[in-house]
Design a protein that fits this description.
Layout: H1 4-11, H2 15-23, H3 30-42, H4 49-56, E1 61-66, H5 74-87, E2 91-96, H6 101-112, E3 118-121, H7 129-137, E4 142-145, E5 155-159, H8 161-174, E6 180-184, H9 190-205, E7 215-217, H10 222-233, E8 243-246, H11 249-261, E9 271-276, E10 289-292, H12 295-311, E11 319-322, E12 325-327
Parallel strand pairs: 1-2, 1-3, 3-4, 4-5, 5-11, 6-7, 6-8, 8-9, 9-10
Antiparallel strand pairs: 10-12
Helix pairs in contact: 1-2, 1-3, 5-12, 8-9, 10-11
C-alpha cells in the first residue's frame, strides 16, 4: 500500500507539499498540485480519512442508527446514506439497536465522545426523546429519518405514513371489504401510530366501527404476524376479517403463510397487504399488494440534511415528507403491477 512518502517521491516534491494538497490547507502551485494528483492516481493512493480527521478535530464519519439490521427494509436506505456520504468524503458507521434503549444509549455515547460527527436516527421511540434531546442541547448534528419523534426539534425526513394507512384501507374498501384488520408495529412507533390513524380515518369515512380485535400488533415481524393471523383464521367465517393490512411486507409474509396453513385462499378468503415494497413482494410466488416506501430517497435526503447541518449548525430546522405509492399485485385481487 502506497504511503505519503511514496507519493512525494513519485511526484518529485516534499512530503509537506503532498500534505498541503491532500488537506487543501496551503497554496500549492498548479504545476506541483497536478504532479501530486497524478502520482496519487498512478499509485492508487487512498488517504487515511480518520487520521486527517483527528488532525482537524473531526472524524469524517457519520452514524446511522437502525432498529434491525436483518430487516430488508434497511439496505436501500443504508446504501443511499453511504453513497451520499462518500460524495463528501465521509464514512458511515452503522449501529443496530434492536429497539433496545441500552443500545441507543451506547450510540449516543459515541456521539458525545466525538467518534462520529453527526447522527441519522431511523429507529427513534418515545423512550429515546430525552436522550436525543441531550445531543441537540449540545448542538450535535442530528437528523431523524423514517421515524419522527414528537416534541424533538430536529431535522426530519419521513414518508407520508398517514396517507399510506389511508390509501391502504381505502383500497380494501373499494374492493368491497368491510371487516378489515390492521396489524400494527412496534409499540410506541410513530410510523405505526400514523398508519393506524390513516386506516381508522378511512374506516370512519366508510361508517365502519373498528373493534379492538381488528387492530393488533404483528410487530412488523414474521413470527408475531403469523401468530396473529392464526388467531384470525380460527375465528368463525362470519366474524373473521376478510382483509388484513400489515405494517410491513415481512409481517405480511407471516400473514400469507398462516392463511395457507389454515387452508384459506388469498385473495378469495382473505386479502392481504403490506408496507415497504421490498424486493420479495414482487416475487411471482408472492405478488404482494403493498404501499411503496421510498427507502433510498429517505436515506439520501437524510444524509444530505445531516451534512448540511454539520456545515451550518445554526440554519433553520427542515422537515421533509416523501410521498408513498400503492402497488397493486395479486394478494388483494385486481392485480395491476
Amino acid at each position: 500500500m502506497s504511503t505519503i512518502k511514496d507519493i512525494a517521491k513519485h511526484a518529485g516534491v516534499s512530503v509537506a507539499t503532498v500534505s498541503y494538497v491532500l488537506n487543501n490547507n496551503r497554496y500549492v502551485s498548479p504545476e506541483k498540485k497536478e504532479r501530486v494528483l497524478a502520482a496519487i492516481r498512478e499509485l492508487n493512493y487512498a488517504p487515511n480519512a480518520a487520521a486527517r480527521g483527528l488532525r482537524a478535530g473531526e472524524s469524517r464519519t457519520i452514524g446511522l442508527i437502525v432498529s434491525d439490521i436483518s430487516n430488508p427494509f434497511y439496505p436501500d436506505l443504508a446504501k443511499a446514506c453511504e453513497d451520499e456520504a462518500q460524495k463528501h468524503g465521509y464514512a458511515v458507521h452503522m449501529i443496530n439497536t434492536n429497539d433496545q434503549p441500552e443500545r441507543m444509549r451506547q450510540a449516543v455515547a459515541q456521539a458525545r465522545e466525538g467518534k462520529i460527527d453527526g447522527l441519522i436516527v431511523t429507529s427513534a421511540l418515545a423512550a429515546d426523546r430525552e436522550l436525543l434531546q441531550s445531543l441537540l442541547e449540545r448542538n450535535f448534528p442530528l437528523v431523524l429519518a423514517h421515524r419522527r419523534l414528537e416534541g424533538l426539534d430536529a431535522d426530519l425526513v419521513e414518508s407520508d405514513n398517514f396517507e399510506g394507512g389511508l390509501m391502504a384501507a381505502r383500497h380494501m374498501l373499494r374492493l368491497g371489504h368491510r371487516r378489515i384488520a390492521f396489524m400494527s408495529g412496534v409499540a410506541g412507533s410513530p410510523i405505526s401510530e400514523l398508519r393506524a390513524a390513516g386506516y381508522r380515518q378511512a374506516m370512519k369515512e366508510a361508517g365502519i366501527d373498528v373493534p379492538p380485535e381488528w387492530v393488533l400488533s404483528g410487530e412488523a415481524r414474521y413470527a408475531a404476524s403469523y401468530e396473529r393471523m392464526l388467531g384470525y383464521a380460527d375465528m368463525p367465517p362470519g366474524e373473521r376479517p376478510t382483509a388484513v393490512i400489515n405494517m410491513s411486507d415481512i409481517g405480511a409474509m407471516g400473514v400469507l403463510d398462516a392463511a395457507a396453513d389454515r387452508g384459506l385462499r388469498v385473495p378469495g378468503d382473505v386479502a392481504v397487504m403490506g408496507f415497504d415494497d421490498l424486493f420479495l413482494a414482487a416475487f411471482r410466488s408472492v405478488r404482494l399488494t403493498t404501499v411503496r416506501i421510498p427507502r433510498y430517497e429517505l436515506g439520501r435526503q437524510a444524509t444530505e440534511l445531516l451534512l448540511d447541518r454539520i456545515s451550518d449548525a445554526n440554519r433553520d430546522i427542515r422537515r421533509v415528507v416523501l410521498p408513498v405509492e400503492l402497488i397493486v399485485r395479486g394478494t388483494c385481487g385486481g392485480e395491476r403491477a
